Amino acid sequence: MSTITLTQPLPMTLPSPDHVYRLTVDQYDRMVGDGMLTEHDQVELLGGVLVRRMPKNPEHEWAVAEMQEVLTACQSSTWHVRKEAPVRIPDYDEPEPDLAIVRGTRAALRGKHPGPADLYLVAEVSNATLDDDQGVRKERYARAGIPVYWIVNLRDGRVEVYTDPDRAVGNYQSRVDYGPGEEAPVHIDGQEVCRIAVADLLPKWP
């Protein structure tokens, strides 16, 4: 068994994207299954490229835990909540969103990761990763057709809710921002199931 040791990035010019070999989800999963990548490597697959997962600071952990608590309290037999677990988006993506609302029961997914058709909503809590979350992640989630994408923007003190994905261009056609004095509604199949007070997700904002 071998493991990949990740080192600090070198000051170098990266190759043209046209010359980069992209891993498929199947290849990535085989690397995990063979032990070439382990949980200690702290990477995920985005656009066929291995991307580092950033360390979680206290504000990030607070926001994720608060969201999970609210969503879990209102979940039903038709959907459940997953935290920091892989989402399999063929052919080149296996991100690990901070939270996901998944169709059906947890038992129904035994032995597999959910795919785009299983997902109602994915959410990322962002500070240092904000550029990626508003960029490449949003693009990949939109191309997968995931109906709702949340960014809990700790940097600017708001929750950004993206809906109506355009798979062809890799973007969402609608965005609504909610500030600290507001509640962000959670919709599943167009129906509101609960609301989350934005201020509760932003420990440093009034």
Structural class by SSE content: alpha+beta
Low-confidence stretches: none
Order of helices and strands: HEEHEEEHEEEEEH
Please tell me what the overall shape is: globular
CATH topology of the domain at 58-201: tt1808, chain A
User: Going across the major beta sheet, what is the strand order?
Assistant: 3-4-5-6-7-8
Mean pLDDT over the full residue set: 91
SS strand fraction: 25-35%
CATH level 1 name of the domain at 58-201: Alpha Beta
State the major sheet.
6 strands, mixed
Per CATH, the superfamily of the domain at 58-201 is: tt1808, chain A
Number of strands: 10
Q: What CATH architecture of the domain at 58-201 do you see?
A: Alpha-Beta Complex
The helical percent reads 10-25%
Radius of gyration: 17 Å
Report the span from N to C terminus.
50 Å
Q: How many helices in DSSP terms? A: 4
Describe the structure.
The structure is a single chain. This protein is of the alpha+beta class and 206 residues long. The chain has a domain at 58-201: tt1808, chain A (Alpha-Beta Complex), CATH 3.90.1570. Helix content is 21%, strand content 30%. The chain is built from four helices and ten strands. The protein has helices spanning 25-33, 58-74, 130-143, 198-201; strands at 43-46, 49-52, 79-83, 99-103, 119-126, 148-153, 158-166, 171-178, 183-188, 191-197. It has a six-stranded mixed β-sheet with strand order 3-4-5-6-7-8. A two-stranded antiparallel sheet has the order 1-2. A two-stranded antiparallel ribbon has the order 9-10. Strand 9 and strand 10 (191-197) form a beta hairpin. The protein starts with 24 loop residues before the first helix and ends in a 5-residue tail after the last helix.
